[in-house]
Amino acid sequence: MKRRLLILCLFSLCCALPVFAQGNGNLQIHFMNVGQGDGAVLISPRGEVVLFDNGVRSLCHLPISYLQDLGVEKIDYHITSHYHDDHIGCAQEVLTEFPLRRLAIDRGFIYPSTNYPPKNNKPGGTFWKYTNVVGSKRTKATQGMTVTLDTATTNPVRIKIVALNGNGKVKVTTANENDLSLVAMVSFAEFDAVIGGDLSGFPLSHYKDIETSVAPLVGQVEVYKVNHHGSTYSTNNNWIETIKPRIGVISVGSNKKHGHPTKDSLKRLHDAGVKTYWTHSGTGANPKAGWDKIGGNIIVEVAPNSAKFTVTYNGDNEDTYNMWPTSNPLFAPSNTLSITTTDASSSVAIEPKYAWSRRARVYHYSNCIYVHNISPKNYESGDSEPGGRRLHKGCPK
């Protein structure tokens, strides 16, 4: 009888665990609905936790409750994009509830404001709350710095700092805190995501174009955390045509002051064939059917050695995407041409040179960003240019 009760208790505990509890064997990136701000948590397959920013001041119950629901108890690394209070506004509250185990990585320096340091050097203000709570674990990032998770496995997760402070080696003179954002790349086998805070892309108003020089350092990715909440001054054409994301995730809230996401930014994303997921409906442009989804907490998940990744939104809705084509046959997505040799134990995945929809008058190079929009039932491909169709304007080789 006692044994039966023990089994029932263990079963009940297992069933009570959250769906995305730490270390479920997959890479998880949770873009949290934190209001008009940024906050994302990465959980490695083995359960290491990295927090990218932490939410907006006055709404700290949002990231705290979400992390609690995930079963998070501690944060291994905290990576700060920049020092605005919609990105580090909950540092004290979050890192008090979930203690920091290793490092807090940021762009260095003191936030340049006349309000800091406070009078009598007493703690106060968002920036000082952040530095106080991370204490001696605060570490200045350098370009190329890499954090590796699950180091003892064959499938480690790598987070590389590709740019910061106006892109480091490519000096851009700017005092704008958004321009100075740290840009992090998350890599897991063939999967890549870029998280760049409020990086700017246009030399307008008091902003500079940082995106154009950073884009080649990022390269092609699957997931793009859209810079600056989809502002008019972010996601320029050079940036989006270089990183070619499968999807974009936009972190927005109900603050009417900013009007995010903007029509300009969304148009550039849509023109590049990028579908987006929003944490909130925002106060800017309306979502476009078939392109934009309002999803609350947006969860990206990747299984080891997979050629696909999933996006979960609104609790239980799930979309699946192929990763970008690769020369490694193990990761060849479903729209590549697979040729099997006479030896049954050997196969090679070969990407066709051209691809098109049988309903369209244009065709693309097979690695063009627009190819993934083609419905599988209409997808056609070949090594020769199809007759009666024209090459899509601006389609990259």
Number of domains: 2
Query: Helix segment count?
Result: 8
CA radius of gyration: 22 Å
Largest beta-sheet details:
9 strands, mixed
Q: Classify the beta-strand content into a percent band.
A: 25-35%
| Integer average pLDDT | 85
**What percent of the residues sit in helical stretches (DSSP H or I)?**
10-25%
Secondary structural class: alpha/beta
**C-alpha geometry:** globular
CATH architecture label of the largest domain: 4-Layer Sandwich
**CATH class designation of the largest domain:** Alpha Beta
Distance between the termini: 69 Å
Protein described:
It is built from 8 helices and 23 strands. Strands 6-5-4-3-2-1-15-16-17 form a 9-stranded mixed β-sheet, with no helix packed on it. It has an 8-stranded mixed β-sheet with strand order 7-8-9-10-11-12-13-14. Strands 22-20-21-23 form a 4-stranded mixed β-sheet, with no helix packed on it. It folds into 2 domains: 303 residues, Metallo-beta-lactamase, Chain A (4-Layer Sandwich); 63 residues, no CATH class. It is of the alpha/beta class and 397 residues long. The N terminus is likely disordered. Helix 4 packs parallel to helix 5.
